Structures are given as C-alpha cells and as structure tokens.
Amino acid sequence: MKPKWKITLVLLGIVLVSFVAGGFLGAKLTERALKRRHAPEMWNQTVMRVLQQHLKLTPEQAQKVQTIIDNGVDEMKGIRLDTIGRTDAVFEKMIAQIEKELTPEQDAELQKLKQARMATTIDMLKVEPRKK
Fold first, then answer.
1. Up-side HSE of residue 37: CA atoms within 13 Å toward CB?
2. Which DSSP string do the residues of 39-51 spell out, in sequence order?
3. 120: which of 13, 38, 64, 105 is 20 to 30 A away, CA to CA?
4. Domain coordinates in residue numbering, the chain
C-alpha cells in the first residue's frame, strides 16, 4: 500500500508544479501579447505588412507609404504620452485627496500602491524604435 501512496503523492506534486508553471507562463505570454498589441511600432509593422500584401506596393510607393505611417505613429505616440500625462495628473489629484482621509498605517500602504502605479506608468512609456 505504501508505494502506491508515494507514487500518488509524487504524481500529485508533478501536476501541481505543472499547473503553477503553466499559469505563470500563460500570464507572462498574455502580458507580452497585450503590450505588443498596444505598441505603436507593432501597429506600424502590421499596417505596412497588410498594405504591402493587399496593394502590392512598388518599392517607391512602399517607401513613401512607410514615411506616412511613421509620421502618423509619431503623432500617435505624442497623443499617447499626452493622454498618459493627463490621466496621471487626475490620479495624483485623487490620491492627494484620499491621503487626507487616511490613518498613518493606511497612508504607508497607499505609498506602496503609489510606487507600484508609478512602475506601471513607466512601463507604459517605454517605446522602442521601429526595426528597419
């Protein structure tokens, strides 16, 4: 009887480790896919690929179209940064008002949340140049 229990426990352990590892990997892959989906550079590459595929652009046209797309993406980046900045200002205003209502212990916990939020904002602002 004892060997069956040992085998059962080992198999259960393997299943649990696999479950945790799969969940972690799935979460990371989903996060990566979402970041790529919302990155203007990825949109740039996708649009150019679709246009090239459907319109069969000549090399001269492709160069001109790429310049137009690059300019549009640069404009979108500016809009994105402005939106993030304006949103951040609203958050800061709300947080300042909330801080006035908190106990010292609650305020300490809020400061931790603020740090996590700032890290997220900094991640959102990371913009990598288009690969040529």
1. 6
2. -HHHHHHHHHHHH
3. 105
4. 39-125
Query: Is pTM, for the whole model, over 0.90?
Result: no
Q: How many separate helices (H) and strands (E) can be counted in the chain? A: 4, 0
How do the pLDDT tens digits run along the chain, 132 residues long?
567 888 888 899 999 999 999 998 998 988 887 777 677 778 888 889 999 999 999 999 999 999 999 999 889 888 988 888 898 889 889 999 999 999 999 999 998 888 887 666 555 555 444 454
Closest Cα partner for 81 from 36, 41, 121?
A: 121
Tokens of 114: 């603020």
Hey, is 22 helix, strand or coil? helix
Q: What is the dihedral of CA 72, 77, 78, 81, to 10 degrees?
A: 160
Can you read off the two tokens belonging to residue 86? 């304006």
Q: How many CB atoms lie within 10 A of CB 73?
A: 20
Quick one: angle between helices 104-125 and 59-99, nearest 10? 170
User: HSE-up of 45 (CA within 13 Å, CB side)?
Assistant: 11
